[in-house]
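Hi L.,

As promised, Phage holin family protein:
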Amino acid sequence: MERFLSTWLVSAVALSVAAWLLGTHMNIGDSGDSTTDSVVAVLVVALVFTFVNSLIGPIIKVLSLPFIVLTLGLALLVINALLLLLTERITDAFDIGFTIEGFWWAVVASVVISVSQGVVNAFVGSHD
């Protein structure tokens, strides 16, 4: 449970960094939201993102292993972008306000999120 909570919080920070860096290409919440509403939106999106990555991510990565090896790991960028777009679809069903402006922005966002998670994990000492 502790690992899930730390992963969730690290994901929240990483998603916030990605939304900040990508500007209008990736949004979490609405522009008129209060600070509390924005934080809640980020936490909810991060929760869905953590569940998607924890439950669906490993299955897809194992099934795609030959393709991942064949592309020297570049297929992971596509897989991570698709998992991020799945997170967008799920949160859209609950009207949370998480949008990404297309597949290629999802690829860029997944790279930013991965790097951000690595940096945050290095500071908090989490070993995923």
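The helical segments are 2-22, 35-63, 65-70, 75-93, 103-124.

Thanks again for sending the construct details.

K.
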